[in-house]
Fold this sequence. Notes:
Elements: E1 3-6, E2 12-17, E3 21-27, E4 33-38, H1 40-44, H2 47-57, E5 65-69, E6 79-80, H3 82-91, H4 101-107, E7 108-111, E8 115-118, H5 120-130, E9 138-140, H6 155-158, E10 164-169
Parallel strand pairs: 5-9
Antiparallel strand pairs: 1-4, 2-10, 3-4, 3-5, 6-8, 7-8
Amino acid sequence: ADGLINDRRNQNLWIYTADCMPILIADKRRRSVAAIHCGRRGLENKIIKNVIKIFHEKGSVKDDLIVAIGPSISKKNYLVDNETLQDFYNQTAYKDTLTSSEDKKILLSFKGENFISIDLKKFAYMQLLNENVPNSNIDISNLCTYESNHEFYSWRKSKTSSRQWNFISS
């Protein structure tokens, strides 16, 4: 599964990731939790929006949600071709809001003619803000799984089947 949600107390949710983002969400009042495995496709399919919607349906309010985006591949190491970028760009809700060149520079960098880097963590952050999760309730790790090969596993770097385990407790 790419996402697990639990509203029972004293439970642990575990997911494993390599270069994708582990996104851990908790309602600090209700003590419900979620663990999401989220990469480019998860962002395209709006997994964050869907999980936040479930939290709201179960009675959570935006100010009670806290979110941690864990170590994952960094913008400079996540390179895609132009076709993949266009598919991603068309699937996300930001194609109409990214009008300034400054916005595009933050999220996208061109690496020669054939590859573009995408800041998946920033896109996840923007999706959380669009779901009214307060900025002060979001923490984003700056650790890169691709660069920190002694601390993390990276599928893109070594094609390893090893993964990091991420968990959250209610």
